[in-house]
Design a protein that fits this description.
The chain is of the alpha+beta class and 276 residues long. The protein is built from four helices and 19 strands. The chain has a five-stranded mixed β-sheet with strand order 1-4-8-7-2, with no helix packed on it. Helix 2 packs parallel to helix 4 and helix 3 runs antiparallel to helix 4. The two termini are 39 Å apart.
């Protein structure tokens, strides 16, 4: 969830919510708003004082200052800036500087695969770089989309954020509906609160892709299975906050009282040094 500074004045006009937007539409102008910060959820980005749509959907506003785009369908259209989880299909190219990974983005995606340059990882060089195999998972960002060309991915950032990159092989991959994945990323939603509440009591890692893939890792077999079942139950609750809160409390209590959990053997080693 990105947090951005805004300017001054009144509340967001209610008439601008629930409107259907296409990529590039300006849904809100923040010039005359009183919010000191805004939170940007899936499907939107901030350009100067404008909140703009990056995909087709319905623009939503949740007080006090959260903007996001919702869709009723379950078809993902890649948009620049989206965080996604991809599955490595193969590696292409001969020269290191030209090699790329072909990455599967999901069957519900308009263009099912994307291209990830082999050096598009933080700290990667021709000698020191990830060596990914077919079936490995990556958490990356859509760098560029074009009407006719391939979707371009990256696992690098201009900021200090370093969470993009290969994901542990022993983690669990939950395939969710697109609306559920987006709610998990939206501040104030029951699903987002669930993740925050679990994180207070249970050490775990997660990566959430707006393409409907959620990766979970606890390092322990039974607790990871329970966490997976929690996400499944939360999706089945269809946004019912009471049901999700009860399920969260139950799973957290079960994990906290567990004394016979089994450590996952994690020998994941992606980074290699090669002589060029």
């Amino acid at each position: 969830m990105d947090v951005m500074d805004t300017t001054d004045a009144d509340e967001v006009p209610k008439r601008r919510t629930q409107q259907i937007c296409i990529p590039g539409d300006v849904a809100f102008n923040l010039t005359n708003q009183s919010m000191k910060t805004v939170s940007l959820g899936p499907g939107v980005r901030k350009v100067q004082s404008d909140i703009m749509a990056t995909r087709v959907g319905v623009m939503q506003y949740r007080p006090p200052a959260t903007f996001f785009l919702s869709t009723t369908g379950d078809s993902y259209s890649p948009a620049t800036g989206d965080d996604v989880i991809g599955v490595v299909v193969k590696r292409k190219g001969h020269e290191v500087s030209e090699q790329t990974y072909v990455v599967d983005l999901g069957r519900n995606t308009g263009r099912q695969t994307g291209i990830l340059p082999i050096l598009a990882f933080k700290g990667a060089t021709k000698r020191y770089r990830p060596n990914l195999k077919k079936g490995d998972l990556i958490y990356g960002r859509i760098r560029r989309t074009t009407p006719d060309g391939p979707v371009r991915l990256t696992c690098t950032s201009n900021t200090n954020q370093s969470f993009w990159g290969p994901l542990r092989r022993t983690g669990a991959l939950y395939r969710a509906s697109l609306p559920f994945a987006r709610r998990c990323l939206t501040d104030g939603s029951p699903e987002h609160d669930m993740i925050q509440q679990v994180g207070v009591r249970v050490p775990f890692e997660t990566a959430i892709g707006v393409n409907g893939r959620i990766w979970l890792y606890t390092g322990m077999e039974k607790s990871q299975n329970l966490l997976y079942s929690l996400f499944r139950d939360a999706e089945a609750a269809k946004g019912d906050g009471d049901v999700i809160r009860k399920a969260t409390a139950r799973v957290v209590q079960e994990i906290a009282s567990m004394s016979d959990d089994i450590p996952l053997e994690d020998n994941t080693q992606y980074w290699v040094t090669r002589v060029v």
